What does this fold into?
Amino acid sequence: MATFSAGYSSALGDILSQVNDAFSGKTSGIDVSSVVNELMQVEEQPETQLQSEQSTISSQISALTSISSQLSTLQSSIQSLTDLDGAFSQMTTGSSDSTLVAASADSTATAGTHTVVVSKLATTSSSYSAYIPSGTSLAGAQIVVKYGSDPNNPVKTDTISIPSSDTTLQQSASYINGGGYGVTASVVTDSQGSRLVLVSNSSGANGNLTVTSSATTFSSSPGVDAQLTVDGVPVDSASNTVTGAIPGVTLSLGAADPTTPVLISVEPDTTQASTAIQNFITAYNAVIGSINTQYTLNSSGNEGVLAGDSMLQTLQSDLLNLISTSVTGDYPNLQSLGIEMQNDGTLQINSEVLSNALSSDYSDVQNFFQSASGWGQSATKQMTQLTDPTLGPVAADINGLNQTNDDLTNQISDFQANMTEVQQQLTTQYDNLNSLLIEYPLQMQEAADQLASLPGAPGSSSSSSI
It folds into this structure.
């Protein structure tokens, strides 16, 4: 208000100065455009204030939106800790000789150690034709391929009819490869000529090939199943990738050595669990860091745009309560896992404590995050409330600010419409004043002339004749 009054007084002073100059004859009237513009700058100061309020609100909404996004990230990090198929359910494997047997495990695997002995690797059957004389081909020939160890009772049969237009062996091979059959064809050429080679697309005995053709003869080498024992139990596999022998574990056979038992270990993947915990801490610290920034003085000595928002203090308190929540169990709170709070409210991991907990009491740590009465369930409930898109404190604050911003927009619109009328009125008033000021010297001259013409006035004709 003081600024408004000072501005108005200054404008009036300038106007009076112009009027005095006009009265004294220094100027002809006043500059109506500059006078009105100067007055309008004063009249429009409330709009500047409203726009300043909108700018502050926009900054507040931007800051809150960033915090809302960080809260969503924090919620996701907690979900990864409580997910029954998430980080705490992942398993890792080890092998005493990965050149013989390597292994991988999914979340359904059970921790334990298993002994695997590989006596035979699975091989793939192939079949090759007799030499095809130069200048001849298999064009128009029919090739019958039977799959399985018993040609009289095949698992599958392919009848391949080579088109008469395929006049080279390479064309025949390309036709077979494009036909979706159970073999892959190629042409092998040596010093004695060329042969068509068929390789089964399936390893093991069920992929064995028996090939006949009216155009040429084929010789075949059989495929065999892999033979191994798992914890003393014989296992037959058509592939060197073995599933089902150990639930949730896939064995990859690299070589056969009946005399060397391979120990396969299956245990919880503490690395993934530790990473998930670190992701949670990172997400939590990001939110707390943003809140702390609002209460930190900048280079100008000012706090953040949200420093006066009571909701932010409530949110800060809610997050601190989330971290300090205790439950029953061998690990009652985050601190017992080595997750420690710093003076600024952020978290830090005591790596030694957490590592010992994960390596020695993995199931207890998992229960802390995933059991029905664990910390994870409580944290999930609290985060659901904090991130609610309608009732959550941050969302409600943003909605309130958006409403205030809309109200200010309407006020500015109404104010601008009113200013248009004020400008028109001021222009009319000062146009009229300017006209009077312009006419004033003429009226004064007319009055002087009339006075001079009166009898007895100095210089009048009546005076001179007396």
